[in-house]
Amino acid sequence: MFCENCGANDQAGKFCGKCGSPLSAPPVTASPAAAPEVTSAPTAAPVVVGSARQLYEYMVLTQKDRVFGGKFNPLQLQEALNGFARQGWRVVEAATTTFPGFSGSREEIVFILERPVG
């Protein structure tokens, strides 16, 4: 039999010896008088329609990161984000948040960047 999941040939039994996916029975050629057989996709493996989902990796930046030297400078931020963009990163979210401290709270800018994996 042929494994539809990994493409291995000459598989025997109910499961593929290479990837472990369930094997479907070989197609049966029906005579013209016989009704067509209705089959369904194996339930153990996910069914992918169209292209596979793209995977991403993420990076979180704050003004305390070494990129900014602990001080906020819009020009330095612009240069840093353009540098990350050349590496394939893009900003997907930017927000401010408040962190409690010993001498009161402080506001910090947080950037979330993503890029495709692979």
Total of helices: 1
Structural class: alpha+beta
Relative helix content: 10-25%
Number of strand elements: 3
Low-confidence stretches: 38-42
Read across the widest sheet, the strand sequence of neighbours is 1-3-2
- Any idea what the radius of gyration is? 27 Å
Integer average pLDDT: 73
| Main pleated-sheet profile | 3 strands, antiparallel
Total domains = 2
Task: Give the overall shape, derived from the CA principal axes.
Answer: elongated
Order of helices and strands: EHEE
Percent range for β-strand residues? 25-35%
N-end to C-end Cα span:
33 Å
Give a brief rundown of this model.
With 118 residues, the chain is of the alpha+beta class. The protein has 1 helix and 3 strands, in the order E-H-E-E.
Tell me about this structure.
With 118 residues, the chain is of the alpha+beta class. It has two domains: 1-50, no CATH class; 56-116, no CATH class. It is built from one helix and three strands; from the N terminus they run βαββ. A three-stranded antiparallel beta sheet has the order 1-3-2. A hairpin with a 2-residue loop joins β2 and β3. The chain is elongated. The chain starts with 55 loop residues before the first strand and ends with a strand.
